[in-house]
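Researcher: I'd like a structural prediction for the single chain below. Treat it as a standalone chain; there are no partners to consider.
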Amino acid sequence: MKYYPQKLFIFLVIFLAFFTAVVPEAYATNVAGTFRQTYFRWRDDDGSETTATWKAATNAEIMDIATNAQIRLRIGTTEGGTCQGTGCRVKPQLEFSSDATSCTTGTWTTITTSTSGWLMYNSSNFADSDVTTQQISSETFAAGNMHDVTNPDAANTTMTINGATEDEWTVGGNSPAAGTVYYFRATNNGTAYNTYTVCAKLTTAAASSISQVAYRWFTNTNSVSAGTATPINTAITATTTDSQLRLRMLLHVADGQLGQSGTTSKLQYAERSGTCDTSFSGESFVDITTGSAIRYLNNSVPADNTVLTVNPQDPRHASSTGTGASDAVVNQTYNDGDADNTFSNSVAAIPAGQDGLWDFSLTFATVTSGTYYCFRAVQNGGGQLSSYSVVPELRTAGVDRVRLRGQIRLRTVRLR
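Model: Treating it as a single chain, here is the predicted structure.
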């Protein structure tokens, strides 16, 4: 029998190469990782993965968040120095809790596209599963994913020992409780991390009451500024049945600050029944749109939903402090229906005890001459505001009917 050491050596090399290439995981050393939530940072959903605005510093909580907010949360996961092989794989999944006091207490809910409280919110600023770049961690980095639909991502992230990864989620308020602290954490596909060095936290804005308290009609100027003002809280008569007008209205906030974008409302009108009373007796209100009988007028400038331009004659509302002063006003938006038929306090939060001011550009399409109409703001879902102390009113142009009483004489003349 002949002995071929060179051939045996070649065979062993080929076998080992095949073994390590085809079945590495079966025989390699796999040690579970020690995963830690080490970083988080809140941001607005107003840009891409790299350009969106940060709402606070790294590992800082945020407060006074509107219950219908759409925001983004980035979490940095680190590995504690134990992982080997497949044990370095992690699949971050976002969860929230309303009864926790830390990331290791309380009841936790995985956020989906339909969960109550907070849900996945489809962002227009990135695509689901886009990869992340390193922004809040400092360790050796493995790219994670952006999430606005899937949670967690379908694929694992393979970290390096002592390394980091970052994932970011867009979440939207789905009727969370007002004035409540919510905690957020990442888990490994539902399994809690070994350590939570930090726990992401936000507090929703306190419940606010919103009241319709003052208004003023202006002529329209097809510009950023409203035209000539009429007396405050006073009904007007339109000069023609196709008049172009501006209505500026104050909504008062009480009981708690109304966080930025904390309310979405719409403007309605109704033919008057009796008087434009604050209980709306006998009226049937409909939404003002670009196609309604009383409708939005799209001026060439400014653009819909832009910050309104202050007018010295803007309406004011007497302060409830009894000092004779007027409430402070937080100017909001000009609205002409070009982008949508709603309005919100998207410009800024409105503190309790202050008023928000909105500007509406209106005209008429198929209204009856000599008819009285009432106007009100309501919640976007159709519910009324907390209260109404004034109701804007106007009368369309027309000829009044006059009834004569007593005796009259009629003389006829024959023309030849």
